[in-house]
Amino acid sequence: MTDITTHQASRRRLLIALAITCSFMVIQIIGAYYSNSLAVLADAGHLFVHNSSLFIALIASSMAIYFAKNLNDGYQRAELTGGLINGILYLSISLVILYEGGERYFHHSDGHELHINSYLMSVISAIGFLFHGAAAWVLYKGRKASINVYAVFLHSFFDLISTVSTFFAGILIYLTGWAEVDIISSMLIAMFVLFTGVKVISRCLKGLFENSGKLPDVNEIEQSIASVEHVENVHNVTVVRQDKELVVGAHVVLKQHCTVEKHDEACRLKVEKLLLSRFKVAKSVLQIESHECHHDIPFRKNT
After folding, report:
1. Which of 99, 135, 261, 287 is most solvent-facing, going by the fewest CB within 10 Å?
2. Could you report the per-residue pLDDT of 12-35, keeping only the tens digit for each?
C-alpha cells in the first residue's frame, strides 16, 4: 500500500532527475545546432518532452501526496493520469522524429549533401551519457513504488541507450563519411520511443479501468469503526483498491484492552465484521493499539 512517505520520496527523486536533465538539455540544444545532426536534434527534442514529462510527473506526485493525506486512492488515479500523459508524449515525439527522419532522407536522395559535425556529435553524446546515467541511477530505486517514477526511469534509461547509439553513429560517420547513419540512428531512437510509449499507455489505462469504481467514504468508515464497543478512537484510515478488491487500513485504539485476555482479537473481529457487512470490505489491515498501556499489538492482515 503506497503511503505519503513513499510519494514524498518519489517527488524528491523526480526533482533531482529534472535538475540533471534540464542542465544537459541546454548543452544538447546548442550542440544540435552546431553539429547539424538529426540524431542529436532528435535527442534534444526528445529531452525537451522528457523534461515536460518530468514536470507532469511532479504535478501528479504532488497531487498524490494531497490525496493520500485525505486518505483515499485518488492519488492512484492522479499518478496513473500523469503516467498516461507521459505515454502520449512518448508517442508524439516518436512520430515527430520519424517524420523529420523521412524528410531528411528524401532530401538527401534528391542530391542534397548532409554536413554532419561527427566529432561534436560524439562529444555531446558522451556528456549526455554521464547526465542520463546520473538521472537513471536516482530514479532506479524508486521505480517500483510509483508508476510515474517507473515511466520516467524508462525514459531516462532510454536516453542513456540513445546517447550510446548517437556516440557510435558519430564515430561511424567520422570513419566512413556515411552521413545516412545519422538518419538511421534517429529512426532507431524513434522506434524505441514508440515502443516505450505504447507500454506506458497500456499499463496506465489498465490501472485506470481497474480503479474506476467509487470507493466508500473514508470519514464514514472511520465513524463506523469508532462506534464499535471498546474502541477509543480511530486514525490513519486508508481505502484503496488492489487487484479489483477493496482494502481498508486503520489504526484502532481500544479502551482497557490489556485487562482482558485476547480482548483485542475480539474487537478486531467486530471491526472486520462491520467492514464486511456495511461496506462489503473483506480484506483489511488493522493495527490494534492500547490506549492505556501505550504499546501496540502487532497488526494482522485479514484476508
Report:
1. 261
2. 877 888 888 888 888 888 887 788
Domain 218-302 CATH superfamily = Cation efflux protein, cytoplasmic domain (3.30.70.1350)
Distance CA 53, CA 93 (A): 11
Dist CA 291 CA 264 (whole Å): 12
Each residue of 100-121: pLDDT tens digit?
Answer: 888 877 876 766 666 778 888 8
Residue with cell 473483506: 282
**Does the 4-210 domain belong in CATH 1.20.1510.10?**
yes
Q: Where, residue-wise, is CATH 1.20.1510.10 in the chain? A: 4-210
Residues of the chain with CATH 3.30.70.1350: 218-302
